[in-house]
Amino acid sequence: MNWLREPETEPIPGYRLVEPLGTGGFGEVWKCVAPGGINKAIKFVYGNLNTLDDDSHKAEQELKALERVKAVRHPFVLSMDRIEIVGGELLIVMELADKSLHDLLLEYQQTGRPGIPRDVLLGLMADAAEGLDHLIQKHNLQHLDVKPKNLFLIADRVKVADFGLVKHLERQSYSGLMGGITPVYAAPETFTNKISEHTDQYSLAVLYTEMLTGHRPFDGKNIRQLALQHMSEAPDLSGLPEPDRAAVARAMAKNPDDRFPSCAAFVRAITGGPLRADPADATSDGSIVETPAPIRTRSNAPSDTGTPSTPVARIHKSKGTNGTPLPITKKTSYRPPVTPFPANQSMSMSVSFRPEEGVLRPVILIGIGSFGRRALQHVRCRLLDRVGELSLVPCIRFIYVDTDPDAPAKVASGPADAALLPDHLFHAPLQPVTGYRRRQLDQILDWLPREKLYAIPRSLRSDGSRALGRLAFCDHYLRFMTRLRHEIQFATHPEAVSQSSNQTGLTVRTKVPSVYVLASASGGSSGLLLDLGHAVRRELERFNIPDAPVTAFVFAGAPDDPTSPPAELSNIFATLTELNHYADPDVSFAAQYGGPEGPQVDASGLPFNATYLLPMAQRTSEAFRDTLSHLAGYLTHDLTTPLGTGLEKIRRGGVPFGRTPFRGFGTFGVWYPRGLLLRSAARQLCVRFLRGWTAERVPALPDEAERILNHILTDPRLTPEEVRVFVAAEAAIGVDGNPVEGMKAWACNLARQASDAARTADPPGWAVSAWDQTRDWLGMEATTDADSPFRRGRLSRALDQGLRRSLDAWCNELTELLRPLDELAGPRLAATETIVRQLIAACAEASTATEKQLAGFGDARVRARNDAQAAVEGCVGVSEGGPSFGLFGSRIGRSLRAVAEKIKIFADVRIQEDLASVTAQFYRRLGVWFEDKLRDLAFAREQLADLATAMEAQVLLPGTGSTVTGGQEPHAESEEGVPNTLQGSNTMRVVLPFGEDHLDRSASELLAQLPPDKPPRLELILTRLVIDPRGGLVGACRASSELFPFLAGPMVEQATAYLTNLLPCEDVTEVELSAAGAGPGDINRRVASYIRAAAPLVTGPSEEERTFVMLPDSTAGLRYAEEVTKAVPSATTVPVRGAVTDLLFCREQGCLRTADLFRLLEPCWEAYHQAATNLETNPHARFDVTGWVPLVE
C-alpha cells in the first residue's frame, strides 16, 4: 500500500486529493475534488490485489463485497461513483457525507444531552431501516457492520455505507466473518459464523439504544466478553423509555426468528406515531420540545444543555480512530504535539494526569541479549495480567535480538503464557572469520583491529567481547532494518490499534509509536546498543515520525559486589563511556553497513530520549529478579496507564547543563494479579472439561443421546425397502430415468416385441439380440466391489453410482444428526462412541440379514439363466430345422414368446438380486463409515488427553533465590525467571484471595466458590464459540497438529472472559484500607515504607526526583490518595480507570550528576583501566575513536 499520500496529487486522473478524512481497519478515506469541481470521497483499501501480503485479503474482500452491492440503487444507500484498481490498489469514489451518526451523537453530548433527541433519532432510524430492508428484500444481502460510523448523514437524511462485510444469504460463506465484524454491535449468530435475514436488525437495535441513551446495552471490554454477553446475557435497556424496551428487546432476541420481520417493522414498533418530528414542535434554537423519559447522563458531561443549531447543519470533523474509515471531512495530524521545556526544568515541570485521557499507543519492545530476553518475558507476564492475551493486542510488538548461536533454543524458555515466540527472535549470529574475508573486509578493519577479528572463537559466541557483538549486528544490519520496518508498520496499522483498543478496553492516546530498548551493559551484546538505537531512529525518520520517543534501559550489573568479574565491570564502564561520548551534540556518530555501497549513518547526539540505568546492590539471583520486577512494573504502567503521558513529558525535557544523560527509577507494587488468577482458574476449568470429554466410559447415555440414537435406529428411510428405493432414485441422476423401472418396463415389453419379431425374416436373431441385451444390462450374477468390470451389467454400474450418492447424502445427514452430541456435558466422546458402536452393530445386523436374502437368489438366478439360455437355443433350433407351423400355431412364435417369458423371469430375479446386493453394500459401507468415526474418536481422545496433560503443568512455577558466586552470571541458573514475579519480594507485595500464597491453589479455591450452574454454562459457551467453529473436538484434532495454540489458547481466553464477570474486581486500595488493625497511623507508615522500598536503583540529586503513585480511580482510591498526600506531600497520585488491580509507587530519578555516576562506577574504574591497556581485552565496541570523552574525571 502507499503509506504516504500527499494532497494535490491525482491517484485517478481528474480526481485531486484535498485532505485525509479518516482511517480504519480496511483503508483510509480522503476528500477529493472530482472533474467539474464536485467534492467526493475516495477510499483507498489496504492491500494490493497483485501481491500475497498480509493485507491483500482485505482488498479482495472489499472487491467481492462491491461486486455484490454495485447494482444497489436506493436513496438511503450511499452511492458509489467509480471503482478503480490502480497498480493493484483498490480505489472507491463515493458521495461525500456531512458527518456520521456517531459524530451527531458527540455533538449532542457536548451540549449536555445523553444522546440524540428521540424524535430526531426516530426519523434517522427510519431511513437506515429502509436502506437495510432494501438490501435484504431486493438483493438478499446483509450489511453485517451496522454501526454509527457506517450511517452517514447527507442533507438531513441517513445513508447506509461501507459494504466491506456484505454477504449474500443464499451464497454465504462461513469463513472469515469474525475477522471484520464490530463486536459491540454484532448479532449473536455472527459469533458462530452464521447470519440470517434479521442479523442487521439486531445491530440496529443496539445502535438505537446507544444513540438515544449514550450507553450501550453491553459493557464488555473485549471481543470475548462481548461475545459472551451477546450470546447469553440480557441487554441492559434500563436507560430506554419504558415503551421502547419491549420492542428493542425483541429486536435483540438471541434467536433471529424471534425478531421483527424487518428493520422497518422494528422502527414502527418503537415509533408509535409519525416517524419524523414536526418542525412546529421545534424551539427557536432547533431543539426538540418532546424529550424521552429521564436518562442517566454521564458524570463528566458539560453543564450546558443547549443543542446544536441543526442536527446536520455543518460539516463535522470526525476522529476516525476506530472501525472502517468514514467519508466525512476531517484533517488529521499523525505527529503528536510536543511541548518543549527548558533543559533545567525536566523534573520540576508541572505534570497533570486525567483519568479520561487515552493511554494506548503503538509500542515496539526490543530486548538485546540474554538480559533483554528475560526482561521481555517479565514484561509480557505483567502485560498478560493487565491486558490479556498479547496476540490479541497487535499494537504491542516484541523483538528479541541476540548473537548467541543457542538463541533459537532459548527463545521459548519460560512459562507458555509469557514465553517469547519464535517469530519474536531476530538472530544475528557471528560468521566464521573466512566469511568476513570474503565480504567488506576493508570496511570492517576501519573500526575493528585485525587481531579482534581473528579472535572470533570457533563456537561463534561473542564471549563478552563488545566489539564482536557490534560486528554481528553490522553484518545483519540490513535484515534488522527490514524486520524493524515490518514491526513499525504492523504496530501502527489502524486496524492493529483499533483491535488492541477493543481487546484491552484502553482508549488510544496517539498512533505515534514508542520504542523501548532493553539491554545489559555487562555483556558482549552491549556493543550493538548504539548502532541499534540509531537504526531505530533512522527508520522512524523514514516513516516521517522523527520525534517518536525511543527509550533505553541499560542493566548495569552489580559494581559494588566483590564477586562481579572484572570483565563485566570493564564492559559496564565502556558501555556508559560510549553512551556519554555520543551524548555530546558536537560528537558525530558515523557508521557504514553492508560494504562500500551499503547505507551510511551520520548522526549527532544519542538516539535515545532517555537512558535509564539498572544496577544491583548484590550479584544474586534474588537481586536480579528484583531488578527485572522493577523494570516490568515500570514499563507496564508506562504502557497502560496515564503515567506514560507524564513520563514522556519528563523525558523530553532534555539533559540539564552539567548533568549526564543517565537516569534512574525505582518501584514498589502491591499487586493483586487478577488477570493471571483468572487465567489459572480458566485453565483449570478447561482441563476439567477436557478430562470429562475424554473419559472412556459414560455411566448412562444422556437423554439427548438416547433421542438421537432412537431417531436414527427407527428412521423408516433406513429400512432395506426404502434404501433400495433411495439408491435407485439416486442412480437415476445423470441417466434417462430410473434404471430399475426402465429395465422392468423393457422386460415387460418383451412379449409384444416377440410377436413383432415372429413376423420378421430373422426371428432367432431377435431372440439372440434380446438375450445379449439382457446380459449387457444385468450381467450374469450379482456384483460386488471385487467383481471384474466385464462381468458387471449396466444396471449394476448405475446402482453403484446411486450407492455412492446415497452414502454421501446419508453420511452428511448423519453427521448433522450426531452434531448435537458435541454439546453434551461430561464424557461426550464416550457417549458418541457408545452410539456409534450401536449403529455399527445395527448396520452389521442389517447387512447380515440382507446378505442372507441375497444368498437366496443364487439358485433362482442360475435356474432362470439356464432356462433363458435354453429358450434362446431352442428358438434357434426351431429356425434351423423342422416345419415352422404346427397344430397349435407357429412354432417359432411360441419359441419367441418362451424366450420373452424366460428373459423376463431372469431379469426380475437379477434386478432383485442387484437391489439386494447394493442394499447389503450400503449397510456395509455405512458400517465402515461409522468405524472410521470410531477411529477418529479414539484419535481425538488421545490428542485431547495429551493436551489436558500439557495444560495441567503449572503456568507459573515456583523459583529459587539462591546466591550466585564465582563469576557466574546472576541469571544463568534459572531460565524461567518470570514465575518469581508472583512471589512477594523487595519490589512487590502480592495479594491473593483466600489468604493463599500460591496462584493455582488460590484459583482452585475460586472455582470451588462458583455456583453449580456456571461451569455447565461455560462448557456450552466453549463448545459454541471455540469448538464448533473448529469442526468439533474431532475436527479440531484432525485440522491441526498444534492443538495448544489452535484449541487450548482460545478455550482459556474464552473461559477467562467468562470468569471475568464472576470474579469481582478486587480494589487493592480497599484491601489496604481495610487491613486488620490498620488505623490512620498504620496506613501512613505503610505508605511511607512502600515509598522507601521504591527508592531509585541509582541515586541522584533529590531535587531531580519525582514520586508517582498509581491507584484506581475509585472511591477507595481517592481515600487512599489522601493518605498518600498526608504521608508524602510531594507525591503525585495518578488515578487509573478500568480494572486496576495493583498499586505502584514509582520514584523517577532525573539526570544524574557526574558525581552520582562516579559513585556508581568507581568500582569499575580499575578493571576498565587494566582492560583498556591491552588490545585483546579492550572492552570498547569500536576502535576508530581515538579519544573517548571522559566519563568521570
UniProtKB/TrEMBL annotation:
- What does UniProt give as the signal peptide span? none
Q: Fetch the InterPro entries from UniProt.
A: Kinase-like_dom_sf (IPR011009), Prot_kinase_dom (IPR000719), Ser/Thr_kinase_AS (IPR008271), Tubulin-like (IPR025904)
Ranges of residues in domain Protein kinase: 15-271
The superkingdom of the source organism is Bacteria
Q: What is this protein called?
A: Serine/threonine protein kinase
| UniProt cross-references to SUPFAM superfamilies, sorted A to Z | Protein kinase-like (PK-like) (SSF56112)
Cross-referenced Pfam families: Pkinase, Tubulin_2
What are the record keywords, sorted?
A: ATP-binding, Kinase, Nucleotide-binding, Serine/threonine-protein kinase, Transferase
Transferase keyword on record: yes
Q: Name one GO molecular function term.
A: protein serine/threonine kinase activity
